[in-house]
Design goal:
- The structure is a homodimer.
- In chain A, a hairpin with a 6-residue loop joins strand 11 and strand 12.
- Chain A contains 9 helices and 13 strands.
- Helix content of chain A is 36%, strand content 22%.
- The mean pLDDT of chain A is 94.
- In chain A, the strands form 3 sheets. In chain A, strands 1, 4, 5, 6, 7, 8 and 9 form a 7-stranded mixed β-sheet that branches.
- The longest helix of chain A is centred in the last third of the chain and has 20 residues.
- Chain A is an alpha+beta fold.
- At the A-B interface, helix 6, helix 7 and helix 8 of A face helix 6, helix 7 and helix 8 of B.
């Protein structure tokens, strides 16, 4: 089996310039329209299926990495020092392990998220993508987007989709070392498209995605049909994007999200992220659509809801969801 | 293909005594612990899978049937005359069509439900089971429970489980005419078992079960795995009942209900019966269980929640759900 460090070193070894004092990177968060749920390789974060996301433009992460004195990494999140035993610092240090020139080599990491952490807004995706970019900047590797995507994926699967703006397809790939499993931007622009983030709960998730996926793959009979469902949804979504057909995009996206949450609910023991407020928001969307408003939703592995609509309908959407944070993915 | 009238006539022809002035029947509602979702024969209401329910004792239906002058059936529900074009009268008359000695022969039906109609409390199950019993009483056919179960099923699938108290397994059967698809009581008593009905919404369902099942069978990829899931859950539930293992019964029941609602949500277009109050009730159950209360839930094709617990915990359950209607299925 290939380890993540072997993959990382294969990509970066023999490249680069003398390291800078600090490297910086930023990356957008992304919201999957066709979801990623289930790994075929836990070590390398290789997915069972492809997925397709839209990046959130200005919402995402900024990371600065620099060599540090030690005797351990110094990890900051939103200007707060992170305890070394906490989840955030442990994941960051484990990722840095893939790149340390030698054991006992330490880094200082300053990360800043402009999205709520760990509540379904994929801050880990933008965080690891920004980290890969910061390391590339620090060491002057000059890596391609595809290589950065592979490196980002080693930190968090969905980070593979956070290297670019716009619509990004994460190819599942089939190589055991995952070199063909990376994000690629679709050649499509949709300036009128809007994503609305409705934060219903900013608390940490009761079951993390990594653990939840593993449980679905191992215990949910329905999971056997998930790859076929995703293949059908990916084809339909790419077609909708090519035609700029909002109703088709909304229908596939909403249906795929409900199917992923269905997988979770049929897992043993069941995983249910929805809160009463989640169902209320879903029903608000359905009622509005019934009355002619072209509005759809999606949900990640969490209770929050993201809305999909076009610019012309923003005022009506804000009327329905006063606290919504609206993003124009195409600027 | 065998028609429902052929099946009905095959069972009743050549039997019986001169008809009485009126026939009467009553039947309990039943709540499936392992669910029925999907038909292999729409005409005869033959299911794809078996299912297993608990009857609700005093909650159910009473029906009185008598010959009437015409020129059409006269259908009453809870003392109110039902419009002939309404869903209730149309279904009742279509069922009576299976038994009329000749065209132009009319009946008067007086039905009374002691459960809310069409809100997931399976009033159609107890209604058709009571109707089959009332016709048996009217004509003096002297049918067996098994034969009555087959006749009741021709009106509504889950009515096959409403001929008896206690735990009833509906055998899926394999015969094209469905003569081997009937409900059978399990030889188990569980006097301490309690079912609590929490009515969150008594409105009609937006998508009826018949239409919803058809849509799942035709469009939901996950449906291919449903028969395997049901087979596993049926085996586990029968084992739990035999051992009177409340935690095992609760776990299977709750998981199977969530898996059925998962099937519905992954159907195209999606079917979601849950209301915000449904999720709130689920979370109340989970929070209470976390604190040691042995309490589980199930949900039929509707937004309401039914609770499963034992008599010793009734006071605590009533504390959590003040409006709960508690039933002792074993009297």
């Amino acid at each position: 089996m290939t380890t993540a460090r072997e993959v990382a070193q294969r990509i970066v070894s023999g490249r680069g310039l003398p390291e800078e004092t600090a490297g910086r990177g930023r990356a957008p968060a992304n919201i999957a329209l066709v979801k990623y749920w289930g790994k075929r390789d836990e070590e390398l974060n290789l997915p069972v299926t492809g997925s397709l996301s839209i990046s959130l433009g200005p919402l995402g992460s900024e990371v600065e990495v620099s060599p540090a004195e030690g005797p351990h990494d110094a990890i900051w999140l939103n200007s707060a020092p992170q305890p070394l035993t906490g989840v955030f610092a442990r994941r960051a240090s484990a990722y840095l392990d893939l790149f340390r020139p030698a054991p006992g080599y330490w880094y200082e990491v300053k990360a800043r998220n402009t999205v709520p952490t760990a509540a379904g807004f994929a801050s880990s995706a933008s965080g690891f993508a920004a980290m890969a970019r910061a390391l590339d900047d620090l060491y002057g590797w000059g890596l391609s987007i595809r290589e950065l995507s592979v490196l980002a994926r080693l930190g968090s699967g969905s980070a593979a989709r956070s290297l670019q703006d716009g619509f990004v397809e994460w190819h599942a790939g089939s190589a055991p070392d995952g070199m063909d499993s990376y994000g690629e931007r679709l050649p499509a622009e949709w300036p009128e498209l809007r994503m609305g983030a409705v934060v219903l709960c900013a608390a940490e998730k009761p079951v993390g995605s990594r653990e939840g996926m593993k449980r679905s793959v191992e215990t949910c009979e329905f999971y056997r049909e998930w790859p076929g469902r995703v293949a059908a949804d990916l084809a339909a979504l790419k077609d909708a994007i090519a035609r700029k057909d909002m109703a088709a995009l909304g229908t596939v996206t909403e249906g795929n999200a409900l199917a992923m949450h269905a997988l979770m609910a049929a897992t043993r023991p069941p995983i249910v992220y929805a809160l009463p407020e989640t169902v209320a928001a879903m029903r608000t969307v359905w009622a509005a659509r019934q009355e002619g408003l072209p509005l759809w939703f999606t949900m990640d592995a969490g209770p929050n809801v993201k809305l999909l609509f076009e610019a012309k309908d923003e005022a009506r959407v804000r009327g329905l969801f006063p606290g919504v944070q609206v993003v124009a993915p195409f600027g």
